[in-house]
Design a protein that fits this description.
Layout (H helix, E strand, L loop, with lengths): L15 E10 L11 H18 L3 E11 L5 H18 L2 E9 L5 E10 L13 E5 L4 H10 L10 H15 L7 H7 L5 E4 L4 H12 L2 E5 L7 H9 L4 H7 L6 E5 L4 H10 L4 E8 L5 E4 L5 E2 L12
Parallel strand pairs: 2-3, 7-10
Antiparallel strand pairs: 1-4, 2-4, 5-8, 5-9, 6-8, 7-9, 10-11
Helix pairs in contact: 1-2, 3-4, 4-7
Length: about 300
Amino acid sequence: MVGIGDDAAAVETGALSLITTDSLVEGVHFRRSWGSDALLGRKALSVNLSDIDAMGGQPRYATVSLCLPSETPLAFVDGLYDGLLQRGGEAGVQIVGGNLSRTHDAIVVDVALIGQADTILPRNGARPGHVALVTGTLGAATLGVRLLDEGKRLGAPSGGAGGAHEERCIRAQLDPAPPLGFGRAAAQAGLAHAAIDLSDGLSGDLLTVCQESGAAAWVDAAAVPIDAAAKAIEEGRGGDPLALALHGGEDYQLLLAAPPEAVTRLRQLAARLKVALTVIGGFSEGEPALSLRGGAADTPLVPRSHEHFGGG
Protein backbone atom coordinates (compact mmCIF):
# COMPACT_ATOMS: atom_id res chain seq x y z
CA MET A 1 0.00 0.00 0.00
CA VAL A 2 1.13 3.56 -0.77
CA GLY A 3 -0.55 6.17 1.41
CA ILE A 4 -0.10 9.88 1.98
CA GLY A 5 2.92 11.41 0.26
CA ASP A 6 2.60 10.36 -3.38
CA ASP A 7 0.42 11.78 -6.14
CA ALA A 8 -2.15 9.09 -5.43
CA ALA A 9 -2.72 6.39 -2.87
CA ALA A 10 -2.32 2.76 -3.90
CA VAL A 11 -4.57 0.42 -1.94
CA GLU A 12 -5.96 -3.08 -2.15
CA THR A 13 -9.70 -3.69 -2.05
CA GLY A 14 -11.89 -6.71 -2.67
CA ALA A 15 -13.34 -7.84 -5.96
CA LEU A 16 -16.20 -5.37 -5.54
CA SER A 17 -15.25 -1.84 -4.46
CA LEU A 18 -17.73 0.64 -2.99
CA ILE A 19 -17.00 4.36 -3.38
CA THR A 20 -18.90 7.21 -1.76
CA THR A 21 -18.32 10.85 -0.92
CA ASP A 22 -20.01 13.50 1.20
CA SER A 23 -19.30 17.17 1.79
CA LEU A 24 -20.04 19.20 4.91
CA VAL A 25 -20.32 22.89 4.07
CA GLU A 26 -20.11 25.56 6.73
CA GLY A 27 -23.37 27.47 7.01
CA VAL A 28 -25.27 24.67 5.27
CA HIS A 29 -24.42 21.52 7.23
CA PHE A 30 -22.66 22.92 10.29
CA ARG A 31 -21.54 25.96 12.19
CA ARG A 32 -18.25 25.98 14.04
CA SER A 33 -19.97 27.43 17.10
CA TRP A 34 -22.13 24.31 17.43
CA GLY A 35 -19.43 22.01 18.77
CA SER A 36 -15.79 21.02 18.77
CA ASP A 37 -13.68 20.65 15.65
CA ALA A 38 -13.10 17.01 16.60
CA LEU A 39 -16.84 16.31 16.55
CA LEU A 40 -17.02 17.82 13.08
CA GLY A 41 -14.25 15.46 11.98
CA ARG A 42 -16.08 12.48 13.43
CA LYS A 43 -19.31 13.42 11.66
CA ALA A 44 -17.55 14.02 8.32
CA LEU A 45 -16.41 10.40 8.33
CA SER A 46 -19.52 8.92 9.96
CA VAL A 47 -21.89 10.13 7.22
CA ASN A 48 -19.75 8.26 4.70
CA LEU A 49 -19.48 5.17 6.88
CA SER A 50 -23.28 5.07 6.90
CA ASP A 51 -23.40 4.94 3.09
CA ILE A 52 -20.96 2.04 2.89
CA ASP A 53 -22.84 0.09 5.56
CA ALA A 54 -26.15 0.70 3.77
CA MET A 55 -24.62 -1.00 0.73
CA GLY A 56 -23.53 -3.99 2.79
CA GLY A 57 -19.86 -3.09 2.66
CA GLN A 58 -16.79 -2.88 4.85
CA PRO A 59 -15.17 0.59 4.90
CA ARG A 60 -11.43 0.57 4.23
CA TYR A 61 -9.79 3.80 3.02
CA ALA A 62 -10.66 7.50 3.10
CA THR A 63 -9.35 10.69 1.54
CA VAL A 64 -10.08 14.11 3.02
CA SER A 65 -10.20 17.34 1.01
CA LEU A 66 -10.38 20.65 2.86
CA CYS A 67 -11.36 24.02 1.44
CA LEU A 68 -10.41 26.66 4.00
CA PRO A 69 -10.47 30.45 4.21
CA SER A 70 -6.97 31.89 4.55
CA GLU A 71 -7.60 32.99 8.15
CA THR A 72 -8.48 29.46 9.36
CA PRO A 73 -6.32 28.64 12.41
CA LEU A 74 -4.12 25.56 12.36
CA ALA A 75 -5.84 24.46 15.57
CA PHE A 76 -9.02 23.86 13.54
CA VAL A 77 -7.25 21.42 11.22
CA ASP A 78 -5.58 19.66 14.16
CA GLY A 79 -8.91 19.26 15.96
CA LEU A 80 -10.70 18.14 12.81
CA TYR A 81 -8.11 15.43 12.16
CA ASP A 82 -8.24 14.32 15.78
CA GLY A 83 -11.89 13.49 15.19
CA LEU A 84 -11.31 11.95 11.77
CA LEU A 85 -8.53 9.70 13.02
CA GLN A 86 -10.46 8.71 16.13
CA ARG A 87 -13.55 7.76 14.12
CA GLY A 88 -11.41 6.01 11.52
CA GLY A 89 -9.75 3.95 14.22
CA GLU A 90 -13.12 2.87 15.58
CA ALA A 91 -14.31 1.80 12.11
CA GLY A 92 -11.06 0.27 10.83
CA VAL A 93 -10.57 2.99 8.21
CA GLN A 94 -7.21 4.39 7.11
CA ILE A 95 -6.96 7.97 5.86
CA VAL A 96 -4.68 7.65 2.84
CA GLY A 97 -4.67 11.10 1.26
CA GLY A 98 -6.61 14.19 0.36
CA ASN A 99 -6.26 17.77 -0.80
CA LEU A 100 -6.05 21.28 0.59
CA SER A 101 -7.40 24.37 -1.14
CA ARG A 102 -8.19 27.97 -0.23
CA THR A 103 -11.73 29.28 -0.32
CA HIS A 104 -12.97 32.82 0.12
CA ASP A 105 -15.54 32.24 2.86
CA ALA A 106 -17.02 28.93 4.04
CA ILE A 107 -15.12 25.88 5.22
CA VAL A 108 -15.80 22.72 3.21
CA VAL A 109 -14.88 19.27 4.50
CA ASP A 110 -15.14 16.64 1.77
CA VAL A 111 -14.53 12.97 2.55
CA ALA A 112 -14.34 10.17 -0.01
CA LEU A 113 -14.54 6.63 1.33
CA ILE A 114 -13.67 3.33 -0.34
CA GLY A 115 -15.09 0.07 0.94
CA GLN A 116 -15.36 -3.49 -0.24
CA ALA A 117 -18.16 -6.02 -0.42
CA ASP A 118 -18.89 -9.53 -1.57
CA THR A 119 -22.65 -8.96 -1.70
CA ILE A 120 -24.29 -5.55 -1.93
CA LEU A 121 -27.61 -4.20 -0.71
CA PRO A 122 -29.06 -2.00 -3.50
CA ARG A 123 -32.04 0.32 -3.21
CA ASN A 124 -34.03 -1.51 -5.88
CA GLY A 125 -34.52 -4.89 -4.20
CA ALA A 126 -37.78 -4.29 -2.32
CA ARG A 127 -40.69 -6.42 -3.49
CA PRO A 128 -44.42 -6.53 -2.69
CA GLY A 129 -44.82 -8.61 0.44
CA HIS A 130 -41.48 -7.56 1.91
CA VAL A 131 -41.46 -5.90 5.31
CA ALA A 132 -39.77 -2.55 6.01
CA LEU A 133 -37.44 -2.35 9.01
CA VAL A 134 -35.37 0.42 10.55
CA THR A 135 -32.49 0.34 12.98
CA GLY A 136 -32.16 2.58 16.01
CA THR A 137 -34.53 5.43 16.81
CA LEU A 138 -35.55 8.45 14.76
CA GLY A 139 -36.04 12.16 15.26
CA ALA A 140 -33.26 13.10 17.69
CA ALA A 141 -30.85 14.59 15.13
CA THR A 142 -33.45 16.93 13.65
CA LEU A 143 -34.48 18.14 17.07
CA GLY A 144 -30.79 18.49 17.90
CA VAL A 145 -30.20 20.99 15.11
CA ARG A 146 -33.22 22.99 16.27
CA LEU A 147 -31.75 23.12 19.78
CA LEU A 148 -28.39 24.23 18.38
CA ASP A 149 -30.12 26.98 16.41
CA GLU A 150 -31.71 28.09 19.68
CA GLY A 151 -28.29 28.42 21.29
CA LYS A 152 -28.19 25.15 23.25
CA ARG A 153 -24.79 23.43 23.41
CA LEU A 154 -23.27 20.19 24.64
CA GLY A 155 -22.15 20.50 28.23
CA ALA A 156 -24.56 23.35 28.94
CA PRO A 157 -27.94 21.66 29.45
CA SER A 158 -31.04 23.17 30.97
CA GLY A 159 -30.79 20.84 33.96
CA GLY A 160 -32.84 17.85 35.07
CA ALA A 161 -34.36 15.32 32.71
CA GLY A 162 -34.94 18.01 30.10
CA GLY A 163 -31.22 18.78 30.03
CA ALA A 164 -30.35 15.12 29.53
CA HIS A 165 -32.83 14.93 26.67
CA GLU A 166 -31.28 18.01 25.07
CA GLU A 167 -27.78 16.53 25.38
CA ARG A 168 -28.89 13.33 23.67
CA CYS A 169 -30.50 15.15 20.75
CA ILE A 170 -27.60 17.56 20.25
CA ARG A 171 -25.11 14.68 20.27
CA ALA A 172 -27.24 12.80 17.75
CA GLN A 173 -26.80 15.77 15.43
CA LEU A 174 -23.10 16.43 16.06
CA ASP A 175 -21.84 12.86 16.44
CA PRO A 176 -24.13 10.41 14.62
CA ALA A 177 -23.71 6.72 15.36
CA PRO A 178 -24.71 4.59 12.35
CA PRO A 179 -25.19 0.86 13.14
CA LEU A 180 -21.87 -0.06 11.53
CA GLY A 181 -21.58 -3.68 10.50
CA PHE A 182 -25.28 -4.47 10.52
CA GLY A 183 -25.85 -3.79 6.83
CA ARG A 184 -22.84 -5.88 5.89
CA ALA A 185 -23.92 -8.75 8.15
CA ALA A 186 -27.48 -8.67 6.77
CA ALA A 187 -26.18 -8.70 3.20
CA GLN A 188 -23.73 -11.55 3.79
CA ALA A 189 -26.44 -13.64 5.44
CA GLY A 190 -28.81 -12.98 2.52
CA LEU A 191 -31.49 -11.72 4.90
CA ALA A 192 -32.18 -8.26 3.43
CA HIS A 193 -32.86 -7.47 -0.23
CA ALA A 194 -32.63 -3.66 -0.17
CA ALA A 195 -31.32 -0.92 2.09
CA ILE A 196 -30.80 2.82 2.28
CA ASP A 197 -29.33 4.99 5.01
CA LEU A 198 -31.71 7.48 6.60
CA SER A 199 -29.95 10.75 5.91
CA ASP A 200 -32.74 12.87 4.39
CA GLY A 201 -35.66 11.53 6.43
CA LEU A 202 -37.61 8.28 6.66
CA SER A 203 -40.51 9.37 4.44
CA GLY A 204 -38.32 10.59 1.61
CA ASP A 205 -35.83 7.73 1.80
CA LEU A 206 -38.60 5.12 1.90
CA LEU A 207 -40.15 6.69 -1.19
CA THR A 208 -36.75 6.49 -2.89
CA VAL A 209 -36.68 2.73 -2.26
CA CYS A 210 -40.22 2.47 -3.66
CA GLN A 211 -39.26 4.42 -6.78
CA GLU A 212 -36.15 2.34 -7.35
CA SER A 213 -38.00 -0.93 -6.72
CA GLY A 214 -41.29 -0.18 -8.48
CA ALA A 215 -43.44 -0.77 -5.41
CA ALA A 216 -45.67 1.05 -2.93
CA ALA A 217 -45.14 1.04 0.83
CA TRP A 218 -47.10 1.58 4.02
CA VAL A 219 -45.94 2.65 7.47
CA ASP A 220 -47.54 1.67 10.78
CA ALA A 221 -47.67 4.94 12.72
CA ALA A 222 -47.63 3.14 16.08
CA ALA A 223 -44.49 1.17 15.16
CA VAL A 224 -42.19 4.05 14.17
CA PRO A 225 -39.35 4.06 16.76
CA ILE A 226 -39.39 7.69 17.87
CA ASP A 227 -36.39 8.61 19.99
CA ALA A 228 -37.58 8.94 23.60
CA ALA A 229 -35.65 12.15 24.29
CA ALA A 230 -36.89 13.80 21.11
CA LYS A 231 -40.44 12.68 21.86
CA ALA A 232 -40.35 14.16 25.35
CA ILE A 233 -39.04 17.51 24.14
CA GLU A 234 -41.34 17.73 21.12
CA GLU A 235 -44.43 16.84 23.15
CA GLY A 236 -43.44 19.44 25.72
CA ARG A 237 -43.38 22.04 22.97
CA GLY A 238 -46.76 21.00 21.65
CA GLY A 239 -45.27 19.50 18.51
CA ASP A 240 -45.78 16.19 16.70
CA PRO A 241 -43.08 13.62 17.54
CA LEU A 242 -44.29 11.27 14.80
CA ALA A 243 -43.80 13.95 12.15
CA LEU A 244 -40.31 14.56 13.53
CA ALA A 245 -39.42 10.88 13.12
CA LEU A 246 -41.07 10.52 9.71
CA HIS A 247 -39.70 13.62 8.05
CA GLY A 248 -36.61 14.67 10.01
CA GLY A 249 -33.21 13.77 8.58
CA GLU A 250 -29.64 12.96 9.62
CA ASP A 251 -30.54 9.95 11.76
CA TYR A 252 -28.04 7.84 9.76
CA GLN A 253 -29.86 4.65 10.64
CA LEU A 254 -30.71 1.94 8.11
CA LEU A 255 -33.99 1.24 6.36
CA LEU A 256 -34.15 -2.31 5.03
CA ALA A 257 -36.53 -4.41 2.95
CA ALA A 258 -36.68 -8.12 3.71
CA PRO A 259 -38.98 -11.12 3.29
CA PRO A 260 -41.20 -11.75 6.33
CA GLU A 261 -39.51 -15.10 6.96
CA ALA A 262 -36.18 -13.33 7.46
CA VAL A 263 -37.37 -11.08 10.31
CA THR A 264 -36.60 -13.50 13.14
CA ARG A 265 -33.03 -14.02 11.96
CA LEU A 266 -32.57 -10.30 11.38
CA ARG A 267 -33.67 -9.64 14.94
CA GLN A 268 -31.23 -12.27 16.21
CA LEU A 269 -28.45 -10.67 14.17
CA ALA A 270 -29.37 -7.22 15.48
CA ALA A 271 -29.31 -8.49 19.06
CA ARG A 272 -25.82 -9.95 18.59
CA LEU A 273 -24.58 -6.63 17.23
CA LYS A 274 -26.47 -4.64 19.90
CA VAL A 275 -28.55 -2.84 17.29
CA ALA A 276 -32.20 -1.92 17.84
CA LEU A 277 -34.38 -3.15 14.97
CA THR A 278 -38.06 -2.42 14.34
CA VAL A 279 -40.55 -3.56 11.71
CA ILE A 280 -42.32 -0.34 10.69
CA GLY A 281 -44.41 -1.43 7.70
CA GLY A 282 -44.21 -3.18 4.39
CA PHE A 283 -44.19 -3.02 0.62
CA SER A 284 -47.13 -3.69 -1.67
CA GLU A 285 -48.19 -3.70 -5.30
CA GLY A 286 -48.80 -0.33 -6.87
CA GLU A 287 -47.19 2.84 -8.12
CA PRO A 288 -44.43 4.23 -5.89
CA ALA A 289 -46.30 5.99 -3.07
CA LEU A 290 -46.55 5.89 0.71
CA SER A 291 -49.47 5.46 3.08
CA LEU A 292 -49.76 5.72 6.85
CA ARG A 293 -51.74 3.22 8.91
CA GLY A 294 -53.00 4.45 12.24
CA GLY A 295 -56.74 4.77 12.20
CA ALA A 296 -59.83 3.40 10.57
CA ALA A 297 -58.27 3.73 7.12
CA ASP A 298 -54.88 4.31 5.54
CA THR A 299 -54.03 7.91 4.72
CA PRO A 300 -51.53 9.16 2.12
CA LEU A 301 -48.07 9.85 3.54
CA VAL A 302 -46.51 12.75 1.67
CA PRO A 303 -42.73 12.97 2.17
CA ARG A 304 -41.44 16.21 3.66
CA SER A 305 -37.79 15.24 3.78
CA HIS A 306 -34.74 17.33 3.02
CA GLU A 307 -34.14 18.35 -0.60
CA HIS A 308 -30.74 19.90 -1.33
CA PHE A 309 -32.03 22.20 -4.07
CA GLY A 310 -35.72 22.35 -3.18
CA GLY A 311 -37.96 23.66 -0.48
CA GLY A 312 -38.06 20.49 1.61
